[in-house]
């Protein structure tokens, strides 16, 4: 974290004339710029965090790949995501990877896609998936036994896919089967492996080959399901059991912008939803249980809350899950799955008197902002009760942004929050999960050096039946 002297140097983001401002500086604490590349390859998250500890706008050097910039103040996040969003486009690599899906398209195309999809992701609409979610959770945890040692990250990867395939594609995955689809979903993240992230797109690294094969497998499955659902899909969200059927129904009834619902677009949309929805949810669940296991007092209150429910959690009882909700909120603050948001500048921009030139990559440090002592007391502490009072309304509107912000805020956030609450409650009623892994000297869990936050593979939890 920055010293008090540094804090004074942080203006919090006043726009100045871009022409004569000096370039954002390299951080003084990260060694010579020619070594940045090595740090970045090894530990992208730790490196960006270290750099942003010195000031709210920094430049990192990536050898032959030029520079990449980091910004770490909520004012800056707000400018990038909301007030000056025209000056920051999505990065080219996402577009190449995910084609015409909602996550990647821009401008009018994005607006038209979002208009079609948004009504299907409102809080009310996603509530229809609640029973299906609980069913998927129960099906999987029925197999857990007292004394099992579980790699929760792997278990929740499977669970998140069970739920996504059932609710988005209308396809129930076999508990122990459908390995090709499951592995394909996991390999969608291989596009962003640090080892190939900085290489030109045409270089066929092994990770990129895996990514392309995975994308084709999921597109082929979407094709098969599209053919199966053709003719007579529902048009009423309440009557639809999955998102794809509903989109097909809307297309056939001609009630939505049909140009946004061609087979090609629907295929891209399905790949996008699987990519955007599964790793993020997995991480949220895994770190929530890690946090509970490491904070006995909170765990006790959580168990008391879910035990007070009348059987498995239902929609009507969601409002009673206060502790559970705050556990998720606080987990997403400390361990936001999307720890940094990437953009590219469309023009020269100035942050705190320092210029970032046009066509440069910028990372908005979400995890950094959410652990900033200027906005949170004891920011490194897992303390769900901090959300009990007025913190939310008093907080800078971009100091908590695990789902991003502005018009491109995560469309799946209500879905994800519902799934997280229901999953935590269903599991918490039946099991206690103890942490068998090792935290570091600061009490932090072992995380993988990936572009999204993940727990290191192979970390185990002990299952105790309650
Ligand atoms: C806890 C779980 C989740 C987290 C933390 C999360 C986080 C995010 C973030 C930070 C963004 C903004 C990206 C940007 O501005 O560059 C985003 C966008 C998006 N997310 Fe999520 N997400 C989660 C779950 C989901 C789920 C379950 C789905 C789908 C079922 C989903 C679908 C999407 C889509 C399609 C976008 C692009 C929206 C647009 O650009 O209009 N996400 N998500």
N-C termini distance: 41 Å
CATH level-1 class? Mainly Alpha
Structural class: alpha+beta
Mean pLDDT rating: 87
Largest sheet at a glance?
5 strands, mixed
CATH superfamily: Cytochrome P450
How many individual β-strands?
10
CATH architecture: Orthogonal Bundle
- The 3D shape can be described as globular
Spatial extent as radius of gyration:
22 Å
Number of helices: 19
Strand order of the largest sheet: 1-2-8-5-3
How many structurally independent domains?
Answer: 1
- Bound compounds: protoporphyrin IX containing FE
Organism: Halorientalis pallida
GO molecular function: heme binding; iron ion binding; monooxygenase activity; oxidoreductase activity, acting on paired donors, with incorporation or reduction of molecular oxygen
Region (Disordered): 1-27
InterPro entries: Cyt_P450 (IPR001128), Cyt_P450_CS (IPR017972), Cyt_P450_E_grp-I (IPR002401), Cyt_P450_sf (IPR036396), Cytochrome_P450_Monoox (IPR050196)
Which descriptors would you attach to this protein?
466 residues, alpha+beta, Cytochrome p450, three-stranded antiparallel sheet, 10 strands, disordered N terminus, binds protoporphyrin IX containing FE
Word description of this protein:
This protein is an alpha+beta fold. It has one domain (4-465): Cytochrome p450 (Orthogonal Bundle). It is 47% helix and 9% strand. It contains 19 helices and ten strands. The chain has helices spanning 4-8, 33-42, 44-52, 74-83, 92-98, 107-117, 123-127, 130-141, 152-169, 179-187, 194-197, 206-229, 243-253, 263-294, 296-307, 322-334, 366-370, 391-394, 413-430, and strands spanning 57-61, 67-71, 88-89, 149-151, 340-345, 349-351, 354-356, 361-365, 431-435, 460-465. The strands form three sheets. Strands 1-2-8-5-3 form a five-stranded mixed sheet, sandwiched between helices. Strands 4-10-9 form a three-stranded antiparallel sheet. Helix 2 (33-42) crosses helix 3, helix 8 (130-141) runs antiparallel to helix 9 (152-169) and helix 15 (296-307) crosses helix 19 (413-430). The chain is globular. The two termini are 41 Å apart. The protein binds protoporphyrin IX containing FE. One of its GO terms (molecular function) is monooxygenase activity. This is Cytochrome P450.
């Amino acid at each position: 974290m920055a010293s008090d002297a540094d804090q004074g140097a942080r203006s919090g983001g006043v726009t100045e004339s871009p022409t004569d401002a000096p370039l954002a500086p390299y951080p003084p604490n990260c060694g010579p710029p020619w070594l940045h590349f090595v740090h970045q390859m090894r530990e992208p998250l730790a490196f960006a965090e270290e750099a942003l500890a010195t000031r709210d706008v920094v430049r990192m050097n990536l050898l032959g790949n030029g520079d990449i910039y980091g910004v770490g103040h909520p004012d800056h996040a707000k400018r990038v995501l909301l007030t000056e969003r025209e000056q920051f486009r999505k990065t080219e690599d996402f577009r190449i990877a995910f084609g015409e899906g909602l996550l990647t398209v821009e401008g009018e195309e994005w607006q038209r896609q979002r208009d079609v999809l948004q009504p299907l992701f409102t809080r009310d609409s996603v509530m229809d998936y609640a029973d299906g979610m609980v069913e998927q959770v129960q099906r999987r945890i029925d197999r857990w036994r007292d004394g099992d040692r579980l790699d929760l990250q792997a278990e929740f990867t499977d669970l998140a896919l069970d739920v996504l395939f059932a609710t988005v594609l209308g396809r129930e995955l076999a508990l122990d089967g459908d390995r090709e689809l499951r592995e394909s979903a996991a390999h969608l993240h291989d596009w962003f492996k640090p080892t190939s992230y900085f290489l030109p797109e045409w270089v066929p690294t092994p990770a990129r080959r895996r990514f392309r094969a995975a994308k084709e497998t999921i597109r082929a499955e979407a094709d098969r399901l599209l053919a199966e659902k053709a003719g007579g899909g529902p048009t009423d969200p309440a009557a639809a059991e999955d998102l794809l059927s509903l989109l097909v129904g809307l297309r056939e009834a001609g009630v939505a912008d049909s140009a946004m619902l061609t087979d090609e677009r629907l295929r891209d949309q399905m790949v996008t939803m699987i990519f955007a929805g599964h790793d993020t949810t997995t991480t949220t669940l895994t770190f929530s249980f890690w946090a509970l296991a490491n904070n006995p007092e909170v765990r006790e209150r959580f168990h008391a809350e879910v035990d007070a429910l009348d059987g498995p959690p239902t929609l009507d009882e969601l409002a009673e899950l206060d502790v559970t909700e705050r556990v998720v909120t606080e987990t997403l603050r400390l361990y936001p799955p999307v720890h940094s948001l990437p953009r590219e500048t469309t023009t020269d921009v100035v942050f705190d008197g320092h210029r970032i030139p046009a066509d440069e990559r910028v990372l908005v440090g979400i995890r950094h902002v959410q652990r900033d002592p200027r906005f949170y007391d004891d920011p490194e502490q897992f303390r769900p009760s901090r959300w009990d009072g007025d913190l939310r309304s008093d907080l800078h509107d971009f100091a908590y942004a695990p789902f991003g912000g502005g018009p491109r805020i995560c469309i799946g956030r209500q879905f994800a929050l519902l799934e997280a609450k229901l999953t935590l409650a269903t599991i918490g009623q039946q099991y206690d999960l103890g942490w068998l892994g090792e935290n570091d000297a600061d009490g932090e869990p072992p995380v993988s050096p990936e572009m999204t936050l993940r727990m290191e593979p192979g970390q185990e939890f002990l299952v105790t039946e309650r």
